[in-house]
């Protein structure tokens, strides 16, 4: 197995290095903006002196990308943005939502939609955002598949991606029940029954999702806990591992990109 070359941490780009002030310049640069910037820099420096995280930040952010990188490479970051938007809008919805199957859940959603300031907008963002995230995750998966980015040494990142895909589907499935209207109720019964037909683990899985043999009062709170705590936490952790591997291994060049000739070989040809 060929050993991967160890790439050095890229140097700090020159625009981030401020030149030392010239003698006599101090007065010109002492406005409130300059002072606010200095204060911000001092805080960051204070934290960095104790945690030494700036090297890690530079390692993560200032990376070389292959020639031919195009818009399709932004689909992963777009998926991550959709996830973050879901997390933020979800927090606001959770401030009003009650996972009470005896009418409370339905009523709390009605209240958010009709009474709360910007409630319909935030709920709409969360509802349509979920569809956007599913579409983006599939497009990103298609990009990595068609560019051959699943091959050595990125197989583990593909596997982590598959886990992220399953978790994204689980978010959609558990979120669908929460409005607790007729459509949510019956669609989830169908979904849980489909899970139950799976070999070996199927019946256990549907028992776990229902929180018992019957679709009952505890099912809604179980779906809510899975939807707002378990799966988002797992997705955040998996995205961390996914991005660590992207930064460590670099991204794949497009398959049509020809490798540049080694200058030594070119010299030998002449
Ligand atoms: C929540 C879901 C996901 C997020 C937030 C995410 C995020 C990212 C980001 C930001 C990158 C950097 C390069 C790029 O954007 O193309 C990336 C790369 C990659 N992702 Fe994902 N991803 C997700 C799901 C998936 C899925 C479902 C798969 C495949 C099953 C996958 C496989 C990969 C692979 C193989 C790479 C390396 C690409 C390369 O080297 O060119 N990811 N991902």
Considering the protein shown, what is the CATH homologous superfamily of one domain? Cytochrome Bc1 Complex, Chain C
Largest sheet: none
Estimated helix fraction: 55-70%
Q: Which CATH architecture of one domain?
A: Up-down Bundle
- Secondary structure: number of strands: 0
Gross morphology: extended
CATH class of one domain: Mainly Alpha
Mean pLDDT over the full residue set? 92
Beta-strand percent range: under 5%
So how many helices? 10
Could you tell me which ligands this complex binds, including any ions or cofactors?
protoporphyrin IX containing FE
Structural class call reads: mainly alpha
Order of helices and strands: HHHHHHHHHH
Quote the distance from N terminus to C terminus: 32 Å
* Poorly predicted parts: none
Query: What is the CA-based Rg, rounded?
Result: 25 Å
By CATH, the topology of one domain is: Cytochrome Bc1 Complex, Chain C
Topology:
Blueprint (H helix, E strand, L loop, with lengths): L31 H20 L2 H8 L13 H20 L9 H11 L4 H28 L8 H23 L4 H15 L5 H9 L6 H33 L13 H7 L1
The site of protoporphyrin IX containing FE (HEM) has 28 residues, from α3, α5, α6 and α9.
Structure write-up:
The protein is mainly α and 270 residues long. It has a domain of 179 residues: Up-down Bundle (Cytochrome Bc1 Complex, Chain C). It is 64% helix and 0% strand. The chain contains 10 helices and no strands. Helix 5 runs antiparallel to helix 6, helix 6 crosses helix 7 and helix 7 runs antiparallel to helix 8. The protein is extended. The model has no long low-confidence stretch (mean pLDDT 92). It binds protoporphyrin IX containing FE.
């Amino acid at each position: 197995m060929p050993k991967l070359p160890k790439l050095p941490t890229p140097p700090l780009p020159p625009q981030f290095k401020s030149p030392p002030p010239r003698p006599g310049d101090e007065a010109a640069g002492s406005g409130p903006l300059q002072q606010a910037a200095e204060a911000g820099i001092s805080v960051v420096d204070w934290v960095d002196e104790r945690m030494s995280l700036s090297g890690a930040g530079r390692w993560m952010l200032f990376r070389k990308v292959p020639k031919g990188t195009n818009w399709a490479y932004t689909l992963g970051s777009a998926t991550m943005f959709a996830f973050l938007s879901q997390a933020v809008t979800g927090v606001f919805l959770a401030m009003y939502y009650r996972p009470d199957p005896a009418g409370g859940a339905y009523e709390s959603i009605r209240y958010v939609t009709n009474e709360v300031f910007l409630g319909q907008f935030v709920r709409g963002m969360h509802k349509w955002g979920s569809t956007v995230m599913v579409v983006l995750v599939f497009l990103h998966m298609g990009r990595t598949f068609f560019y051959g980015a699943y091959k050595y040494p990125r197989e583990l990142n593909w596997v982590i991606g598959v886990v992220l895909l399953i978790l994204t589907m689980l978010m959609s499935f558990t979120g669908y029940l929460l409005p607790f209207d007729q459509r949510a109720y019956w669609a989830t019964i169908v979904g849980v029954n489909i899970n139950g037909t799976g070999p070996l683990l199927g019946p256990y899985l549907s028992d776990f999702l229902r929180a018992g043999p019957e679709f009952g009062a505890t099912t809604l709170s179980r779906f809510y806990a899975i939807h707002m705590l378990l799966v988002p936490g797992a997705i955040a952790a998996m995205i961390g591992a996914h991005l660590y591997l992207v930064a460590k291994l670099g991204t794949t060049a497009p398959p049509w990109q020809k490798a540049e000739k080694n200058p030594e070989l070119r010299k030998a040809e002449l």
